[in-house]
Design a protein that fits this description.
4 helices
Length: about 90
């Protein structure tokens, strides 16, 4: 168990933009936090902050967004968290 899940959960839920949110998630995963541990500390994976732009038509794999990109999570390791441009993701 990680000793700082509350700190990481706070950083995730208070991120000011999509890139900061992705960085906060990556740091939490790098520090050994699991998704379930972060959820217990206050991260609502189904209601992460969003930063403008239209909601995606399909939410599969998308956990947050802004006008230009989507936050994609495929797992609980740092590499699974990435920001993809909307144009690339919407074309898939």
């Amino acid at each position: 168990m990680n000793s700082h899940p509350l700190k990481h959960a706070n950083n995730i839920m208070s991120a000011g933009n999509l890139d900061d949110l992705a960085d906060a998630v990556r740091v939490a995963f790098s520090d050994g936090c699991e998704r379930s541990e972060l959820a217990s500390a206050g991260v609502d994976w189904d209601d992460l902050p969003t930063f403008g732009g239209d909601e995606p038509d399909d939410f599969f794999g998308i956990f947050s967004w802004d006008a230009d990109g989507y936050l994609i999570l495929d797992g609980s390791d740092p590499e699974s968290c990435r920001v993809e441009p909307r144009a690339v993701w919407d074309d898939c």
